[in-house]
Amino acid sequence: MSTLSLRLLLCVLCFAGTANAQKYALSFAPPSGEAMAWNIDMDMDMHMKPPGMDTEMDMNMNMGIGMKLIVEEGPDKQGHVEVRGIVDSMRMAMGGMPGMAVNFNSNQPSTDPMGKSMEDALGPLFDATILQTLNAKGEVVETTGLDSLLARLGEGNAGMGGMSSNPFENMQSYITPLPDKKVKVGASWEQDIEVTSNGTPIHYANTYTFTGVEGDLAVIQVDGRIRMDETQTEQNGMEMTMSMQGTQKGTMKVRLRDGMTTDVDIAQILTMDMLVMGMEMPATINSHIVLKSVNR
Known about the structure:
about 300 residues; alpha+beta; Lipovitellin-phosvitin complex, beta-sheet shell regions; globular
């Protein structure tokens, strides 16, 4: 090998080593006035054996949510950011269970009794303005207005308070927890988070891995466990006891400049133990959640 070739090889190796060692500051810090629009889609398939029936049953549901986030106040001295959330549209299609067919779209007038009932029940969700405070790690540390919204949703004659149709409860699932420090590609961090479904806590133990950069986005892999401890509730006049456990895996993408989530693609596999009116009803659930930003 010639001296010139050797020098070129050394230059390439040095450059590659520098590139691999580059660190990125991943923190949640969008400025005041920043706005983000999300489309959130969820497909869910549930396999179960209803009480008193000899045959097993498959229920499927597709839900879409249009949501806007507006940064009311950018990072303060403590690194806190105040975000206002608005739900501007929702659609839901559900089938597989006798008497439970649903086809609802908030952008279209409802013509069937179930659709009209859902329209009335979900009205408070579209009227609500929820303020949430997040820290530099993307953790939701305070939420204002959620309790009153849950109370109003629970009053709906469709019983929608018992369904996971409220994205404000699940905001931490969409905002990526960040290490709030400079990290290299390949770095991992763990985060335990808790969201609620109609006030019932659901626990996530997640591992996040910074797998690479795509343009102005950081790509982060998510691998975690999900747990809902045994809880008692009442839905449409039926007393229920349920618990749930499972896993999730997928990717999240955040803007390098401010840590705002632009994309989520996560698959979940869950098992649920239910006791309905004193009768056991085990179920397995496969869900796929996709979030895409409209204005990245």
